[in-house]
Write a structure and sequence with these properties.
This protein is 0% helix and 42% strand. The chain has 195 residues and is mostly beta strands. The protein is elongated and about 95 Å long.
Length: 195
């Protein structure tokens, strides 16, 4: 048939209709009832240590969000108080801790760790470690090292689950390198999706 008048229940309509003959306007598609669809990464932010810290630091505290001309920030921001980071929302987060340091003494250790609390800060536990050795052969110039530590965290309660970053110096003369204009020692938070 080349034409049709009347109505057909949707449950009884089978077959195909040629595009040129189909003149009805389709309704707008709404995502209100769609589930299981992610918008992708909606939050990413980097923080950096603003000044160098000598010796053991639990935790490192001199943090600022990267803010120079090329710095990018996606979505809601982390917040930090006395070196303790709070997440803006629940979700699965990829946390990257890059520790850059130096020593002008002889053999030293250089240790970084990510610590997590589930009770608002009453108790802390290490979830990831980075370890490196420093050796200054001449004792005339500083020797440099870095270590990167990663962890994927499931944040289900933003008031109780928090993160901090530790710097461990082996014998004392080591420094965690910080700078307010360049990211040396830094941390990056990327929210991968819903918890």
């Amino acid at each position: 048939a080349t034409s049709f008048s009347g109505s057909v229940a949707a449950t009884n309509l089978t077959g195909t209709i040629a595009d040129a003959r189909f003149t009805a306007t389709l309704p707008a598609i709404s995502g209100a009832n769609l589930t299981g669809i992610s918008a992708g990464i909606e939050m990413a932010q980097q923080w950096r240590l603003t000044s160098s810290s000598n010796g053991n630091q639990t935790p490192l505290t001199a943090w600022e969000a990267a803010d120079n001309s090329f710095a990018g920030n996606l979505g809601s921001s982390m917040s930090v108080s006395s070196g303790v980071f709070t997440y803006p929302s629940t979700g699965i987060y990829f946390v990257i801790y890059t520790l850059v340091g130096y020593s002008d003494s002889s053999t030293q250790n250089f240790i970084g760790s990510i610590q997590q609390t589930i009770d608002g800060g009453s108790n802390w536990g290490n979830v990831a470690y980075g370890l490196q050795g420093l050796y200054d052969y001449s004792n005339s110039y500083p020797s440099w090292a870095n270590t990167a530590t990663h962890y994927i965290l499931d944040i289900t309660d933003t008031s109780q689950q928090k993160t901090r970053f530790i710097y461990g110096a082996g014998q004392g003369p080591e420094y965690a390198k910080g700078d307010t204009n360049i990211s040396y020692t830094c941390v990056t938070f990327i929210r991968l999706g819903d918890t």
